Structures are given as structure tokens and as C-alpha cells.
Amino acid sequence: MTLQALIFDVDGTLADTERDGHRPAFNQAFSDASLDWHWDVALYGKLLAVTGGKERMKYYVEQFRPDYQKPADFDEMVAELHKSKTRHYAALAAHGGIPIRPGIKRLLIEARAAGLRLAIATTTTPENVTVLLEHSLGAGTQDWFEVIAAGDIVPAKKPAPDIYFYALEKMGLQAANCMAFEDSENGLRASLGAELKTLVTVNDYTLDHDFSGASVVLSDLGDPGEPNQLIAGPDLERAFVDVAYLRVLHSV
Ligand code: XBP
Ligand code: MG
User: Fold this and answer.
1) Ligand 2 centroid, distance to 125 Cα (angstroms)
2) Looking at residue 22, what is its pLDDT?
């Protein structure tokens, strides 16, 4: 089975969006709505157990705020808070406040030149993806991805594999011809559930996650002169991830 396409998660994989992107955007939305909800860095790490912003707010109230009296229109209120959070996130990302992770742009450019097809599979809201790509990866880069599968497009978010099934179906490709890129246990469960070989790059929030089943676990993709660290998996004796590396990893 030859490698034909790469499918990328966004949050934590293309960029470290959670701590300094989504988290402050949630907090801003809470304070705009005069709620005494505040998610510090450590609490947010616990809340990341649940993917999806609306789902995460409900989980917070259920697990951490037994004192909070939910209004009758709680679902609507969460939806409004989420719209506000999305506006704050977009404003932050539009100022280029969320840098792309090491090696990502280099690998995407090389993959395109090598004829590999590209897609995105994420639980985040579609606007968040486009604004991040435009302002952090570069103008016009959203066109590099033939499918951007995002947000509520499938009802069951990661760790359900549905978003990957959706992307594969849109591309008309078999999982065996693709490789997924993830940063978290929930993401990995989703990609493995779709039978995709998966390369994991960790971040501060996901260092301790269970990545069993991943093809390889790395600190980051690395760059020439800025080698990455192998955390688990085969040592292919390369200091950074390029297309040649991916072809070997995919064939193992
Ligand atoms: C990403 C997420 C997202 C973001 C928030 O998970 O969990 O929910 O935190 O995005 P993954 P929204 O990287 O596994 O796709 O607020 O737009 O839902
Ligand atoms: Mg992720």
C-alpha cells in the first residue's frame, strides 16, 4: 500500500492552540457574560479530557461546578458562549498570536511537491481552522488541504473515528493509503479507530497520554539543524520528519 495522503489534526498538532489560544478565548467569553468561571492552565489540562468547546463547557459545569444553577435554556447559553469564544479565538489567531509548530510548514511544502494529498480532521470549529491557517501558516494555505473536516460536521467528536471516516470518504481513499498526525490520546483513538497509521507529536498537555498503537511518538517534527526527540517507536535514524521518513514509517 503506497502512501498517498496525510491527514492532520489541528489543535496541538499543527499549532499549540490550547493553552494560549482556546483557553484565554473561553475565559474572555466567560468574563464578557459576567460568569465567575475561569480556567487556569492546570484546570484546562483536565478539561481537555473532553474534545469540543461546547462539550467541554458542559463537562466543566457537571464535574467542577456542582454549585452552579443551570438556567432552563442552558444548551442555548452554552451555544452563545461558544460563539463568543470563537470570535475571541479568531481575533487572537488573526493577530498571528498562535505560531505553527516546528517542521509543519516545511513538511507540508515537501509533501505537496511530492504529490501527496493533504487533509484536516479536527474537532475544532471550521472558522478556527481557516483563520489559523491564513494567519499562521500563510495566506492561501487553506487551499493546500483538499478536505477540511471540522467541528460539528459529524455528531460524534474524537475519540470517535467519525471525523476521519468523513475525511477518507471525501477524498475517496482507503485508510491504508494515508497517514494521520495527532498530538493527544483522544485524537489517536480516533485515528486508530479509522485504521490509520498515526504519527504522534506530543505537547505539554499530552506528554503523559497513552499513545499505544501509534506508529511513532516524537517530541515534534523537527527541522534541519533542530533535531526532534524519539519518545517511542522505531528509530529510523533521522533528525527530522520528511517525506522519505514518512514513506518508511508507513511501510513498517
Ligand atoms: C481539539 C479540541 C477543541 C478545541 C476547541 O481536539 O478539543 O475542542 O479545544 O475547539 P482535537 P472548539 O485536537 O483532538 O481535534 O471550541 O471550536 O470546539
Ligand atoms: Mg489535537
Assistant:
1) 13
2) 96
